[in-house]
Design a protein that fits this description.
about 450 residues, alpha/beta, seven-stranded mixed sheet, six-stranded mixed sheet, 20 helices, about 40% helix
């Protein structure tokens, strides 16, 4: 199954590469880059150029949604290009926007939007135009919408929330007496209860398997888990003006000690193939919700809950795929309206997207009978209401500079090469350095960035 790639999805691109790469990708409807100059599709009078990053299962789901849109809107020719996720994508998008060659519509992780120089490299959404196509602020979780607003303008339209989850095997938990009458894992409300659960589960686990897949030596996962549990403790990173570090080293030490204990007590094996171990009978693994299609495809009896509220308060790490409007000097007219129409359509028809494990951002989808029947999605949908997110600063966001700087420090503590309290102090020092740094996109520090909702 492999370690997740930078997008956080299991690295299914290797499968495409193994099948002949671009040839196969093209036959599945992934447009190659640079096809924007082709003739309009028959019967179309408007073209929307759309760059996205969705491959694997996500890619197929997105293509199905685009095909449905094309069928309903024959006057709009959607030219979709799938690019590689990660830093190269952001560089390509920035260069296209700066050189006035930007697509009409793009996709970004919401946490990266603040660093992408909104107003210069991104254009704001026309909320009136979105409303015309049936999407408005009231349709979204308020905290999620607020994250997308910078200097009073909407710069991102959330498509989903993707969260870190505690996956569990029902067969092993039943044997260990850890399954409730409702067929779900017994609730946990403290670190003592959690380690008690692990102790019982370990006794019911086949020899040679770990109890919990923790990605102990992965800087991204370790940072995501840290964010979740530090948020449970009410921890903060910076003051509202982003002028000083408010990071609480005592709370951070508590979280680092908690993560470390999984390794020292023998419940997690660093470097183990966590997904495979879960498929083979390990009782628990902490993974992103993108693993749902993998585990469901294996026909396991399993469940998935938000990360356990071991510090007394619910909070699980969350990010969000969102639509953005890369800057165009002449943005407007039919192509811009079609970009708003396409984004609104996909957001409103995200039932198909939910099959990939993501929680749809459009809240009306969550109350439909079809969504309520999706398992284990219906078990973790509450994660929408207690999102633990990175601070809203230019260096944050999925696999961004913040994760690159502090993720390895969390790993050093979890793996035992640094003491938790020393690692917490190093994290605080790294945060102070980042706060003083200038965003290469616009030369501004976090305090000068105007990233206030």
């Amino acid at each position: 199954m492999g370690r997740p790639d930078l997008h956080g999805h299991l690295n299914r691109r290797h499968i495409l590469a193994g099948l002949g790469g671009l040839t196969v990708a093209g036959s599945l409807g992934f447009a190659a880059l640079g096809t924007g100059a082709d003739a309009l599709a028959s019967g179309a009078d408007t073209r929307v150029r759309y760059w996205n990053l969705f491959s694997g299962g996500d890619g197929y789901n997105m293509i199905a949604m685009l095909d449905a849109f094309r069928k309903e809107n024959p006057g709009i020719d959607v030219k979709d290009s799938t690019l590689q996720w990660g830093s190269p994508f952001y560089t390509k998008l920035a260069m296209a926007a700066a050189g006035n060659r930007a697509p009409d519509l793009g996709v970004m992780h919401l946490g990266r939007v603040t660093g992408f120089s909104p107003g210069r490299l991104l254009d704001p959404w026309d909320v009136g135009l979105l409303a015309k196509y049936g999407v408005k602020e009231a349709d979204f979780n308020p905290a999620l919408w607020k994250r997308a607003v910078i200097d009073g303008k909407l710069y991102a339209l959330p498509l989903d929330i993707h969260v870190q989850l505690c996956f569990y095997r029902k067969d092993v938990l039943k044997k260990a007496g850890l399954l409730g009458d409702d067929g779900r894992m017994v609730p946990v409300t403290s670190t003592d209860e959690w380690f008690d659960v692990l102790k019982k589960a370990k006794k019911a686990t086949k020899k040679g398997l770990q109890t919990l897949g923790l990605h102990a030596n992965d800087q991204n996962f370790m940072w995501w888990f840290f964010v979740a549990f530090y948020t449970q403790l009410g921890g903060t990173y910076f003051n509202a003006a982003n002028t000083e570090v408010t990071f609480d080293t005592d709370k951070a030490t508590q979280v680092l000690e908690f993560l470390r204990r999984h390794v020292t007590d023998g419940y997690a094996i660093a470097g183990a193939a966590d997904g495979e171990q879960f498929l083979n009978g390990a009782p628990f693994t902490w993974e992103g919700n993108w693993s749902v299609p993998v585990f469901s495809g294996a026909e396991l009896e399993y469940g998935a809950t938000p990360l356990p509220p071991v510090f007394g308060k619910q909070a699980t790490h969350a990010e969000s795929h969102s639509f953005v409007l890369p800057h165009q000097s002449d943005r407007g007219g039919a192509a811009n309206e079609a970009a708003h129409q396409l984004a609104a359509y996909v957001v409103k028809h995200a039932q198909q997207w939910a099959a990939g494990g993501h929680i749809p951002a459009y809240t009306s989808t969550l109350s439909t009978a079809a969504y309520k029947e999706l398992t284990p999605q219906n078990e973790y949908v509450t994660a929408m209401d207690h999102q633990a997110t990175e601070p809203k600063v230019w260096f944050a966001g999925s696999t961004g500079i913040l994760a690159q700087r502090v993720g390895p420090i969390v790993v050093s503590s979890t793996m035992g090469s640094a003491r938790p309290e020393a690692a917490a102090r190093r994290m605080k020092g790294a945060l102070a350095q980042l706060l003083a740094m200038k965003n290469p996109m616009d030369g501004k520090t976090a305090a000068q960035g105007g990233a206030v909702a």
